[in-house]
Automatic annotation (TrEMBL):
PANTHER family: PROTEIN, PUTATIVE (AFU_ORTHOLOGUE AFUA_6G03560)-RELATED. This is IgE-binding protein. Residues 1-18 form the signal peptide. It comes from the Eukaryota. Keywords: Signal. It comes from Patellaria atrata CBS 101060. The keyword Signal applies.
Length: 225
């Protein structure tokens, strides 16, 4: 187990009720995550976070349904996809219908975001998703999550196929990870952050990563995020 994972599990232990370490984690040799996926918080041992569905709007946050957007003119022509979950290609490009597509990026302070429609520009000090997100496969046939509320539509309690974490390909090797912190746009909720060199939020909870699950809905699920 890597140093980072040990740290993550150690910090989760404090609030852990049940606690399972996945056996024989193997790094995907080419770092290529197949198929289209949904993602959830991956935090074994945390009843609160493990399995929470991650949805994309302008930023990444937890939610029952995707925060999609479709222009009224497109809607009137019946052109709005009716997916209910945020879907991603690989690790982790958003699946949307908008011409030109959209990208995932990370602000200098770590806030994980999706580019606005018709734009592939990001702030000069931000990072493209591909600069830091990487996928690790988990063993198949894992036991279902214990203590995950299967009747709560905000959770997907299926064991993930793997998990995505963040670490800049070039940079400080001691920094990296994915955190749940206060939402900068709504102090009543949380948002997802990558631990960038300038990340300095406090009061956050570290996840082991973002669990990946095969996506089965309409592709793409939304016109735009
Ligand atoms: C990695 O990519 C190379 C070149 O595309 C390919 O030959 C190889 O089979 C891949 N390995 C795995 C484990 O997917
Ligand atoms: C979504 O759209 C597809 C294609 O138009 C349709 O077959 C399906 O019934 C719709 N699903 C829902 C839940 O509205
Ligand atoms: C946060 O919650 C409080 C109390 O429920 C509410 O009054 C306030 O409007 C909420 N703020 C936002 C930004 O949603
Ligand atoms: C955190 O970083 C921001 C810039 O991203 C800076 O303005 C702020 O003062 C820093 N806060 C602390 C507590 O270091
Ligand atoms: C996800 O999809 C892949 C490829 O189609 C398949 O091999 C795998 O069994 C699926 N995993 C689950 C948990 O359904």
């Amino acid at each position: 187990m890597s140093f980072l994972l040990s740290l993550a599990f150690a910090s989760l232990l404090q609030s852990a009720v049940t606690y399972t370490v996945p056996l024989s984690i193997r790094q995907d040799a080419n770092n290529t995550l197949p198929n289209i996926n949904t993602v959830t918080a991956y935090a074994p041992g945390s009843c609160l976070y493990n399995g929470l569905k991650v949805q994309g709007g302008g930023i990444l946050a937890f939610g029952e349904r995707v925060y999609g957007y479709c222009p009224e003119s497109v809607r009137q022509q019946g052109g709005c996809p009716n997916g209910t979950q945020t879907a991603w290609y690989g690790a982790m490009r958003p699946s949307s219908l908008v011409p030109g597509g959209q990208d995932t990026f990370v602000h200098a302070d770590g806030l994980i975001s999706i580019t606005v429609q018709h734009s592939h520009s990001i702030p000069h000090d931000a990072y493209w998703g591909y600069q830091g997100f990487a996928w690790t496969a988990l063993p198949v046939n894992q036991e279902p999550f214990i203590d995950c509320p299967t009747d709560n539509p905000k959770y997907n309690c299926e064991p993930p196929t793997g998990f995505i974490n963040w670490r800049l390909a070039t940079g400080d090797s001691t920094k990296g990870g994915i955190m749940v912190c206060e939402n900068p746009y709504n102090s009543n909720s949380t948002a997802l952050y990558a631990v960038t060199p300038a990340f300095n939020k406090t009061g956050c909870v570290e996840l082991v990563g973002l669990g990946t699950h095969n996506y089965t809905g309409p592709v793409p699920p939304v016109w735009a995020y």
